[in-house]
Write a structure and sequence with these properties.
heterodimer, A: alpha+beta, 7-stranded antiparallel β-sheet, 3-stranded antiparallel β-sheet, 13 helices, globular, B: alpha/beta, Elongation Factor Tu (Ef-tu), domain 3, Rossmann fold, Ubiquitin-like (UB roll), 3 domains, 7 helices, 17 strands
Chain lengths: ~350, ~325
């Protein structure tokens, strides 16, 4: 998709973020059914339909420039949102290579990458970056390789080292988290990192997910969707900034719920990295207001039912306790009770 | 995993480096360079003969930064079912082979304070790639390389060039052997030990290290078992509703694949556990040859690694 960038939209203060009708139609709705429950919903991250969010390895959409600017604002205030332990340097270069090669191949209008042996030349036109550097030599870049490239990508990134039969969260760029903190979690094992998630441990989800990821193969990335809700189109819902966004939850009314409350979907991708044998975890966040998604009649019915029937433990864990009922009430008039067609795609 | 994921390569050089080991260079046919990989990785080489298909795992011994070609070393196995004989006798410069993407089940621990590498015979191959990585790091290491005799010391010139003083050679024919107690009783905290070689050597290293109080997380080993030969038997695949005959020199996995049923695999050597398959019924004995299942799991008789394990039975039903 060659989207028209909207460089001036904001994810804080005046919240001018909006989705175009095209962006709404390609939104990755996570509800494939009227009922929602966890599953190990992992599928191969292969090229999807043209124009969809999974057409390419890394989706660049109309919010690209604005999201990169938002990231820079977060980092200026809180540099520890980017961290990498010293033994993760080879994984950093792996990530840089994967992202640069993918973007240059998939969006040649916006990005280009030329290589002459270890001398690389990277051009990012939307952000006005023109950088020559030596692959493998950190001193040839203005920042560490992972920091450098993830400032030019949408979504958060976590890099996990594989050792002792576990995955260790040991590098990352996390400025758009759904209430979790890299600074707090860095150095944790896979299950420690996912400790707060309710129900899933008992269901054995993390045992199976870890076993699967330890065997993740080079050249065969996978993806899954996860979701929560956020009041206002705020990307940075971090624990560090809870005082800024936590109180927003008390502002939802039956009148404003459609505009204030946003479904927040994470397209999570997992790649085995070649030189480091680490795993890169991409968490790409998509936001859509309840009013925007309700412009698709099937989605109004689907989301109404999925939210209404959500397990109480998930309502609490996802932080929806205060306003879930209000959103359900807002959507109720748009659900005539007629069946929804299978799958998540708009009719 | 699936055949669609293999890469076509051409054999561009073959060298007999010891009486038993041949060194192969593989260049990409599909593009300009091979996928990047990490030290300790192996590839599965697919060998198609008119009568059957072999898929054997071989460690990559080329430097991980070298991507114009991969290098592997293949030891001719006396009791071969055919894979290593095929590589030795049939493959020529110019032959085309298929390989699967590299998989690493034997990586160096990135936060180790020191590495002790122990190789026996052909077990040197994964360490060849590790040595390249270690050469660029400041973490200390030592390599102990044991072979039958001087003529069996594969790749020694390259090793000496990389490691200098840090390799110690042991020649069986000259009465030399590794003093595992001496080696493992006196290492700094944070040291990791890695062993690749014959089963006896691996068992000895692991037992000695445990005896001296090493945590299991600091003991690493890799050994790809070739699927042992055995009696022929029949297996019924419940979901595919197919009966498959397993010949004496064929593995269970190969027999199933020959019928067009895909089983996900990674190592094909009984190490990774990826091909673990549920046993629904067995009238007879399961012969577990893998290094993955615990004795307790084996005793339950409800799961099997078809890459190396087989059965001596009247009937066997698998959940495939």
């Amino acid at each position: 998709m060659s989207a028209v960038f909207k460089p001036h939209e904001t994810f804080r203060n005046d919240f001018t973020f909006r989705n175009s009708p095209e962006a709404i139609r390609r939104f990755p709705l996570p509800f494939v059914d009227d009922q929602y429950m966890y599953s190990v919903n992992i599928e191969p991250h292969t090229a999807g339909p043209k124009g969809s969010v999974v057409e390419f390895a890394f989706d660049v959409d109309e919010h690209y420039v604005a999201e990169c600017r938002e990231r820079a604002l977060v980092l200026a205030a809180e540099p520890l949102r980017y961290q990498a332990l010293p033994h993760m340097m080879s994984a950093q270069w792996d990530c840089l290579e994967l992202i640069m090669e993918s973007l240059a191949r998939d969006y040649p209008v916006h990005f280009s990458l030329a290589k002459r042996a270890n001398r690389w030349h990277w051009i990012n036109r939307p952000l006005g970056i023109d950088q020559e550097f030596t692959f493998g030599d950190p001193s040839s870049l203005p920042r560490e390789p992972l920091d450098f490239i993830t400032r030019q990508a949408q979504g958060d990134f976590v890099v996990m080292d594989q050792r002792e039969g576990d995955l260790w969260t040991e590098a990352g760029m996390v400025t758009t988290p759904a209430d979790w903190s890299l600074d707090f979690d860095v150095g944790m094992t896979f299950k420690e990192w996912h400790g707060p998630v309710p129900l899933a441990h008992e269901l054995g989800v993390f045992d199976r997910a870890l076993k699967f990821l330890l065997n993740l193969r080079l050249g065969q990335p996978v993806r899954r969707l996860n979701w929560t809700m956020t009041v206002n189109p705020r990307l940075d819902t971090s624990p560090e900034n809870y005082p800024k966004w936590g109180p927003d939850r008390t502002t939802v009314t039956k009148q404003n719920a459609g505009d204030l409350v946003h479904l927040r979907v994470e397209m999570q991708g997992l790649w085995r990295l070649p030189r480091s044998n680490a795993v890169m975890f991409g968490i790409r966040c998509y936001l859509i207001s309840v009013r925007e998604l309700s412009t698709i009649p099937k989605w109004a019915r689907r989301v109404h039912r999925a939210l209404k029937g959500l397990h109480p433990a998930l309502v609490d864990y996802k932080g929806l306790t205060r306003y879930r009922d209000t959103v359900v009430e807002w959507l109720a008039p748009l659900d005539d009770g007629s069946p929804t067609t299978p799958g998540a795609a708009p009719d | 995993m699936s055949e669609a994921q293999t890469l076509e390569v051409e054999v561009t050089a073959i060298e007999q480096v010891t009486p038993l080991i041949k060194h192969f260079q593989l260049r990409p046919v599909f593009g300009e360079s091979m996928p990047a990989f990490s030290g300790g990785s192996h590839i599965v080489v697919v060998m198609r003969t008119p009568t059957r298909v072999y898929r054997n795992p071989y460690s990559l011994l080329s430097p991980p930064h070298r991507l114009d070609a991969y290098e592997i070393g293949v030891r001719r196995m006396e009791e071969s079912r055919g894979g290593s004989h095929f590589m030795h006798d049939r493959v020529r410069v110019g032959s085309r082979l298929e390989i699967a993407h590299p998989v690493n089940l034997f990586a160096l621990d990135k936060i180790a304070r020191k590495h002790v590498l122990i190789a026996g015979g052909i077990g040197i191959t994964p360490f060849m790639a590790h040595l390249e990585d270690l050469h660029e790091e400041r973490v200390p290491y030592e390599l102990h390389y044991s072979v039958r005799g001087r003529e069996h010391a594969a790749f020694l010139p390259r090793i000496l060039e990389r490691t200098g003083e840090r390799v110690r050679m042991y020649y069986d024919s000259e009465g030399q052997s590794i003093d595992f107690d001496g080696l493992l009783s006196n290492q700094p905290l944070g040291t990791h030990v890695y062993v690749c070689g014959p089963a006896g050597m691996i068992d000895k290293v692991a037992a000695t290290a445990r005896q001296w109080g090493w945590p299991d997380s600091h003991i690493h080993w890799e050994q790809f078992s070739a699927p042992p030969v055995g009696d022929a038997f029949d297996v019924f695949l419940a979901r595919s509703k197919l009966t498959v005959h397993v010949a004496p020199d064929q593995s269970l996995l190969e027999s199933i694949e020959a019928q067009g049923v895909e089983v996900p695999y990674l190592c094909r050597g009984g190490v990774c556990g990826f091909c673990q398959t549920r046993v629904l019924e067995v009238d007879g004995e399961l012969i577990h040859n893998d290094h993955f299942l615990s004795d307790a799991e084996k005793a339950k008789r409800n799961t099997i690694m078809p890459c190396v394990s087989r059965a001596r039975c009247k009937s066997l039903v698998l959940d495939l």
